Each structure stands twice: as C-alpha cells, then as structure tokens.
Amino acid sequence: MGNIKDFRAIQCSEYDDTPLDGHYYKWLPYPGKNKCELTCKPDNANFYYKWADKVIDGTKCNHRTNDICVEGVCLASWM
C-alpha cells in the first residue's frame, strides 16, 4: 500500500504552517500522557506541544491496538 501517513500524523501536520513562538516546524505525533490529546513534536527539535485537548474522533489511541478515541476518551476495540 505504500507510505500511508496515520491519522494522528495528519492531524499534527495540519500545524506545519502555524508559527509557534515565531518559528515554523514540521510536526510529528508524540505519545503524551493522555492518549486522546493531540500532542506533537517537531521533527528537528527536542520538545513537544499539545495542540488540542482531543484528537478527531476515530483516531487510534496508539499504534499497538485498534482502540480509538471518541470525545477525548480512549475506547476499547472489540475487533
């Protein structure tokens, strides 16, 4: 299938054109404490930033399971 970007990575990249403290970054997903927040890190810097309190519904909670975030809460997948 090629190089498909995951849904969380797409959400982080939406902020590539948004300056943070006067700088532009290429944002990548960062596994923060809350699995359903949109926390991202620049690909060339050593910090992370929470862009949103919750990811878009249907985003996977992490890459290891099929659990998804709904309204900011990680729900177990029954698949």
Automatic annotation (TrEMBL):
<dbReference type="GO" id="GO:0030198">
    <property type="term" value="P:extracellular matrix organization"/>
</dbReference>
<dbReference type="GO" id="GO:0004222">
    <property type="term" value="F:metalloendopeptidase activity"/>
</dbReference>
<dbReference type="InterPro" id="IPR050439">
    <property type="entry name" value="ADAMTS_ADAMTS-like"/>
</dbReference>
<dbReference type="GO" id="GO:0006508">
    <property type="term" value="P:proteolysis"/>
</dbReference>
<dbReference type="GO" id="GO:0031012">
    <property type="term" value="C:extracellular matrix"/>
</dbReference>
<protein>
    <recommendedName>
        <fullName>ADAMTS cysteine-rich domain-containing protein</fullName>
    </recommendedName>
</protein>
